[in-house]
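Quiz preparation item.
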C-alpha cells in the first residue's frame, strides 16, 4: 500500500506531540513532585540515615537531571512552535551557532 508523504508527516507530528505530552507529565510534573521530593525531603524526615556525601551526591545529580529535563523540554517546545507555524525545522535545534554545511564545504574540510 502506498502511503502519502503528507499523511506520514502528519502522523509523525501527532506522535511527537504525544511524546512531548508524556515527557511533560512524567519528567516535568511527576519527577520533581514524587522522586525529587522523596529523595531530598522525605529521606531526612522519615529516616535516621543521614546519608553523608553519598546522599548529597545523589540529590545533586537528581537535581541536575531535572535541569536537563527542563532543557530538553524547551527544545521540544521550540520544535512544536515551528510545526505550529507550518515551518520545517532547519537543521539541528540543539546547536544555534552552527550554519548548515553543504557537501562541497564538507569536502573542503576533509581535504
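Solution:
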Amino acid at each position: 500500500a502506498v502511503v502519502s508523504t503528507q499523511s506520514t508527516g502528519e502522523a509523525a507530528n501527532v506522535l511527537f506531540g504525544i511524546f512531548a505530552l508524556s515527557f511533560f507529565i512524567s519528567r516535568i510534573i511527576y519527577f520533581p513532585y514524587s522522586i525529587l521530593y522523596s529523595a531530598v525531603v522525605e529521606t531526612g524526615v522519615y529516616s535516621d540515615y543521614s546519608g553523608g556525601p553519598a546522599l548529597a551526591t545523589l540529590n545533586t545529580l537528581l537535581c541536575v537531571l531535572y535541569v536537563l529535563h527542563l532543557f530538553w523540554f524547551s527544545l521540544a517546545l521550540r520544535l512544536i512552535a515551528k510545526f505550529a507555524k507550518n515551518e520545517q525545522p532547519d537543521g539541528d535545534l540543539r546547536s544555534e551557532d552552527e550554519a548548515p554545511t553543504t557537501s562541497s564545504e564538507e569536502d573542503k574540510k576533509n581535504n
